[in-house]
Amino acid sequence: METADVVAEELLYVEAELQDVQDQIKALLDRQEGLHKRQSELKALLEECETSKSTAQVDSSVATDDWSADFEWDSRAEDIRFNVFSISSYRANQREIINAVMSRRDVLVIMAAGGGKSLCYQLPALLCDGVALVVSPLLSLIQDQVMGLTTLGIPAYMLTSTASKEHEKLIYKSLEKGEGELKVLYVTPEKISKSKRFMSKLEKCHHGGRLSLIAIDEAHCCSQWGHDFRPDYKNLGILKIQFPTVPLIALTATATYKVQVDLMEMLHIPKCVKFVSTINRPNLFYKVHEKSSVGKVVIDEIADFIRGSYSKNESGIIYCFSRKECEQVAKELRGRGISADHYHADMDVIAREKVHLLWSKNKLQVIVGTVAFGMGINKPDGLLFIIASVNQWRHTIRRVVELGGMDFLQNVFYIIDQAMFLVSQSTMVFYENAGLQNLYDIVRYCQSKRNCRRGAFFQHFGEPIQNCNGMCDNCAYEAEVKELDATYHAKVIVSLLHEIQENDQRATMLQLVERFKVKIKELGDSIQPVSDLKKEELEQLIVQLLLEHVLKEEFQHTAYTTNSYIALGSLSKLVLQGKKSVMLEICTRRHEDGMPKSAKRGRMSGLEIKLDELRKELSSSNEGMLPHAILSTQQISILSTQKPTSITHLQKLIGKVKTEKYGKRIIELIEHYLKSEQVDDDVPGAASGSKTQGNKKQKKKHTVLIESSEEEQ
Ligand SMILES: Nc1ncnc2c1ncn2[C@@H]1O[C@H](COP(=O)(O)OP(=O)(O)OP(=O)(O)O)[C@@H](O)[C@H]1O
Ligand SMILES: [Mg+2]
């Protein structure tokens, strides 16, 4: 009998030890998984560094591969850039890309949204004889592009499923015989993969030596690893096979290294010249905002944020998970006086376009969409903020990076439920493969008050880390974080859980918090003096202990639901034995206005405001034309400093086409402005000193918050 007791006791002991070992193995396996992931990311990164090094070596050994050198088409290209496109100077990489395409090389371009990818194929299309074929995934994008080119006087057409027979015939004739004035032809990928007739016409065009280049826009749609995979894009590889001598240019706003490799393989362009711009958007201020209390509805906080930070004509996007959620959030925002509408794939094309157009013209402040919204949209003068739930950061990061190329976008605001609430969602995700791990990663990302928010993005895209320059909440308010020693509190929590488990009981997170409070009271004065933890800090501590494997979650299934309980984790003993200290990062003060002063926008001068009003007026009288297409913000800025009063001067600044169309109105406006400025200065006492002071006063009076133009470069 006695022996049996001893054996039973030892068995218990061994079982407990085994459990302990198992927990440790689990923790080690988790760590191993994380390290494996990072290992493959680092390997890919290294490979990329080596590839670009060797490409650079190859490039530099061949004289013609210096893409910034002088080329025979330089002066013609400059002329078209300025007089047709009204673009005064190239942006980063544009000239080099154009030169590579003109040198008949295949090219892969990764450049932010709004970075100016279109020019990289549209300008060569005009420089070359013949027709340029452009594949683009969405009808609305194609319509936008064709309309834009047509207003510039460029013969651009599209061939889509909605095209009439007559229209189709006209284009086919033009392809086959070179008749007509066709210069740029836009098609959806379906045309390539499904229409034999189209492909045979294209073949004839090529035979006649008239297919000048092929551009594949939004090329990431080819890759299954990308977010917007389109099955028809998979068949575009045929283009290079059928037309091997025609230069192919693939363009996208973001592509991880994996996607780039995939694209080169699928499109059969292994030797392409790659132009990759960094995913870093230094103009974006990233902020993770924790809901202030569980009771307060998150929608109130979003509404408060929008109202507090932006005026009604400053627009943004809110990303939601589901279509239903989009509709709900838009409705709730409208109920709070914010003009918002939803946008998702269940709506018909007309309804979607209507919402998009209103938003593009700043007549709708917020679009609430699923992550599908945003591909290829061009809204350089109005998109200022993006709001998403932090659980979605991996889903939305690509969009954010794409849209972040627009100089105006300034604030990315991730909403997070309180950490404790977030952890309670674990019961929903633990079924998924690696679901819990992902959730914990997100919690870790949010919980940290010191790690740069950008760091995670660089890691995601396999890019070396760059300086954030205080453009995220953690970097901006670094000095306001202090560390609080919570080792004692952690010990109390662990021993409390011991007690609970020994009594064959369980505790949920909430129960644990309550019991902790009682316990601390009981211990009263007998405990060493430690600082009191606020409720949120206590919750933060429990979450941190979960992340550090001191505690763990256990799931219990009932017929209807799954419950999560907190149990002792593999490292709990270390805390009890005093071998592990626990430090909590606490914020002493948080700025709640969304961004620090350094991230605030510049200001528009009086003349800039007038020009901005003029482009809006012209846009509403030219149905469908966006204000930015009439005058870009950069052009407005140039006009307001140079103040041209003659057509010749104006033409030098904005090119021939725009001068012919809007020159008269612009000159009138500037002359009127200069006169009124003169009058202001002449009024006695208007400026009790020099002219500059008078100007300053004038500017101040008219100042509104808007993006400064230097940042547009
Ligand atoms: N060098 C330049 N200087 C000034 N404006 C430019 C320049 N190049 C392009 N733009 C303008 O920038 C805007 C965005 O260009 P574009 O539509 O080509 O961007 P994109 O890179 O294709 O973006 P997306 O990924 O959203 O499709 C357009 O209004 C275009 O006229
Ligand atoms: Mg584009």
Question: Can you offer a commentary on this structure?
Answer:
The protein is of the alpha/beta class and 713 residues long. The protein contains 29 helices and 19 strands. It has 5 domains: 1-43; 73-276, P-loop containing nucleotide triphosphate hydrolases (Rossmann fold); 284-416 and 448-467, P-loop containing nucleotide triphosphate hydrolases (Rossmann fold, 3-Layer(aba) Sandwich); 483-590, Arc Repressor Mutant, subunit A (Orthogonal Bundle), CATH 1.10.10.10; 606-678, HRDC domain (DNA polymerase, domain 1, Orthogonal Bundle). Helix content is 50%, strand content 13%. A hairpin with a 4-residue loop joins β15 (551-557) and β16. α20 (487-502) crosses α21 and α24 (606-621) crosses α26. The longest helix has 60 residues, at 2-61. Mean pLDDT is 80; it is low at 54-64, 591-603 and 685-713. Bound molecules: adenosine-5'-triphosphate and magnesium ion. The site of magnesium ion has 4 residues, from α4. InterPro entries: DEAD/DEAH_box_helicase_dom, DNA_helicase_ATP-dep_RecQ, Helicase_ATP-bd, Helicase_C-like, HRDC-like_sf, HRDC_dom, HRDC_dom_sf, P-loop_NTPase. GO terms for molecular function: 3'-5' DNA helicase activity; ATP binding; DNA binding; four-way junction helicase activity; hydrolase activity; metal ion binding.
